[in-house]
Every structure is written in C-alpha cells, then in structure tokens.
C-alpha cells in the first residue's frame, strides 16, 4: 500500500504519538494519521491508542482491506527491511483463497468443459467487471441510481449486451471483448462465464438493473418476431443501448401461475391494432424501459406483444428489499393502441413464447446465485481466518469449520451440477432443451437457491452484527442475506420449479415396479 518509497525504522515510528504527529504501521506500511484523526469514522480515541505502534491486527479486525486503497494518500512510506504481506488484488486477478474460484479456475484442478476461448473470455470479462462495472455497481446499489448510459454504451461496444442473450446468430460478426471469443464459437459455457463474472459485483439490485430486462425479454423478439426487418430494427436499437427493453409477464393476479394473467388485448374492428388494458407488477427495469415484451390475454389464449412506451403506458417504482437500481416497477396499460405487427409468435399461442424463454432465464439465475454464494464463502473464509475472538481466530473453533464445510459443499455441488446441465445445453438443439431440460433446470435453480438460504443463514451467524450492517466489513454478507430470496422467487418460485422437475420426470415414467 505504500505510495512513497521512503523507509522508516520502527523506532522512528514510535516517536510519533501526539496529535501534532500521529503515525502507525499497518502491514509494514507507515501511515501519518495526524490530519485524519478528526475524520476517522471509527473515532479519534482508537487511533490515539495505537499511535506509534503496529496496528495491523487491530486494523484487520475492524476494516476491509480496500479501506487502505481508498486512503492510500495517508501512507508515507514503509518499515525498513519489511515487505507488505497482505495481497492487494488487481483488476482481473483470480483469488488465491481456497474455494473462492470454481475448480476450473483453480490451479491443480482440471476440467473437461473449458477451452482456451473460455479462459480468454473469463480473463477479459473479469477485468472489465473489476475495473469498470463494480465501482459503478457499488455506487448505484447504495444510492439507487440506475445504470449510466455510458456503462450501457461501453458494454454495447464490447458485445457484452449481445452475449447476455446466450449463443445464437445475434453474435455472429459482433466484436466480443476485443476478440476474446468468436461469435460463432460462443456456447453456453461462455454464457455461464459471462453470467457468473458479472454477478461478482456483489450488488443484487444493480445486477438486475444491469439490463436483466433485456436478457430475459429480447430473446422473445429474436426468436418470435414475424418480420425480419422489424426484428432487426428492434434488436439494433436494444443492442446499441439506444432503447431499453424489459419482460412484462407477472401481475398482482398471477405470478408463477402464468395462465392466470388478466391483461387483455382486443383487436380493433379494422384488425390493425390491439387495444391493451391491464397491469403488470414486479417488472425488472420497468421504470426506465422503452419497450415492454408483454403477456396478454387474447380471446382464446395468451399472446405476447411488444408494447412501446407511449400514450396510456405508465410506470411507477415499487420499493423492494433490494436496490431501486433494479428499476422494479408497476405498469398500467390503459387503452394502449399496439400495431398487430408487434405480435410475437402466434396469436393465442403466447404461452409457448413465454415458456420457451424460461429455461435460459432460470439457468442464468442459477449461474448468478451459485457465484454470489461462492463469494460469500470466500468472505467467510477470510473473516474466520482473521477475526480474533475469545483469544483465538474464528477458524480455530470447530463449530465455525463445520459451518464452512457445509457452505463449501453446497457451492461445489451446485457448480458441478450447473456445469453438467450446461454441457447438455451445448449438445441439444433449443427444442430438445425445452423437452428434456426444463425439469432439470427447474431443480437446479431450486437447489441453488435452497443452498443460498442455508449459506446466508450460516454466514450471518459467522459474522454476527457485521453481517447485518450495510457498510463496513460484512457488507456483502448483509447484501446477500437481504437479497438471496430474489433468486428463490423471480423466474419461478422454488416450490413451483421443484414440482415442475418432478412432474417432468414422471411424464414418461416407465412401467417400473418395486
Ligand atoms: C490507515 C488507517 C485507518 C483508516 C484509513 C481507517 C478508516 C476507517 C473507515 C473508512 C471506517 C468506516 C468503516 C469501514 O468502511 O470499514 C473505519 C471504522 C473504524 N475504525 Fe478505522 N481506519 C484506520 C485505522 C484504524 C485503527 C488502527 C483502528 C483501531 C485501532 C481503527 C478503528 C476503527 C473502528 C473501531 C471503526 C468502527 C468499526 C465498525 O463500525 O465496525 N481504525 N475506519
């Protein structure tokens, strides 16, 4: 952390113990805290108590390492003949902490699934996330500000928006992270990497605010638009970041029970328009979107319409337990006139459009949920290793080790299952995926979010009050414990997905008897 090449002996540091000159040592770096004492969020007295001393242990018991980067200007040099021991991660770095990375990224472990292009992509997107996305994400998460247009433009230029939709023709010829991967080569493992790396910002509200509406909504346009040039226009607008799009299915009347939707679309007498009336609730990104991919009731069934924001469309923010950065909204459609050309798929057969979207959405959520859980494990391992209580490190208590063992096992098991399912996705056409994988993906998502529930619970117990505090050392634990439920509800509640998995397994049950 030392920003200056000056060196001091420990004796010299010991002479600076007054309000006129107050120094201390943290990890071999010498800090001049004279002008900082008044401003220290932890108060003045604690700094006076360590004046002239080595405060390394006290510091790491109370602060995250990143505090030192933020206040690097207080460093005046280092202790003669000593070197800083604590690792300061640089953007893009892999974590050396055990279980902090999936096995395929840990030295000594092999995986049959990942090729060079996956490794290149992982490096590039991690660097992007650490360097650019995380600082904005952390700020938006706490202030509730929506993602900036600059960030959207940046992601568009790097093809990150395109990659969010998974493999497909929309990636052909697109520059993906300056050539990290060719669009034709992009498979579901690349997709998994993008999802997992982006969720490392540890900002669950912002994570959805980061174009989740587009991720789950634009696929319906790409797969079901009836006119190619219209499809291209919408896709270009959204991929370029000029227009924002979200998926508007859920209503106060119907959540996981899609068939219960009540928003109606009636055709005008001349057959050129639909008139849409109804409401939508909990719609991610709704407050700032231009297009709404909307589930509506049309006479004999459900249909899906792309509704542009305009006369009769109103959105208002819904306060949820995660950040307003997600743009979660309530939408009202009052006599909204929508051209029939905006129909996606066939009239009255919209359930097919809606359901075909679900698998990818649920799988993406499983990717994110496991990755965030993993970072929580890393946080807990670091904390248990550095926290001193009752005269020992937390990790020296068997009860803490047992909690960690359970958390690690859950994460590793789910990541392995995720990779197995992903491998199947890579080897099945989209139609077969819907047939064979809807059940397993439902069970996988359920497993990941049940695990998240256990992990959040144990993590807070390990962290105590810090796990309930939005700033400071346990901020990620607090965020996770407050928001892990979003993955357990959005995209299909755990119970509904578990049920789907078992029902699908029973559909072609053999005549097998005990
Ligand atoms: C370079 C030196 C230091 C800097 C830049 C610094 C900065 C900060 C900051 C930013 C916070 C707010 C909480 C957070 O963001 O983590 C904080 C809290 C605190 N600091 Fe420091 N600090 C330094 C050294 C120390 C030392 C040596 C001690 C104790 C011996 C100390 C004791 C505390 C305490 C008790 C809190 C409140 C912790 C809590 O609320 O959980 N600080 N410090």
From TrEMBL:
Name of the protein this chain belongs to: Acyl-CoA dehydrogenase/oxidase
Segments crossing the lipid bilayer: none
Alphabetical GO biological process terms: fatty acid beta-oxidation using acyl-CoA dehydrogenase
Cofactor: FAD
Cytochrome b5 heme-binding domain residues: 5-80
Organism this protein belongs to: Drechmeria coniospora
InterPro entries assigned: Acyl-CoA_dehydrogenase (IPR050741), Acyl-CoA_DH_CS (IPR006089), Acyl-CoA_Oxase/DH_mid-dom (IPR006091), Acyl-CoA_Oxase/DH_mid-dom_sf (IPR046373), AcylCo_DH-like_C (IPR036250), AcylCo_DH/oxidase_C (IPR009075), AcylCoA_DH/ox_N (IPR013786), AcylCoA_DH/ox_N_sf (IPR037069)
Record-stated family: Belongs to the acyl-CoA dehydrogenase family.
Alphabetical UniProt keywords: FAD, Flavoprotein, Heme, Iron, Metal-binding, Oxidoreductase
GO cellular component terms given for this protein: cytoplasm
Pfam families: Acyl-CoA_dh_1, Acyl-CoA_dh_M, Acyl-CoA_dh_N, Cyt-b5
Single GO term (MF): acyl-CoA dehydrogenase activity
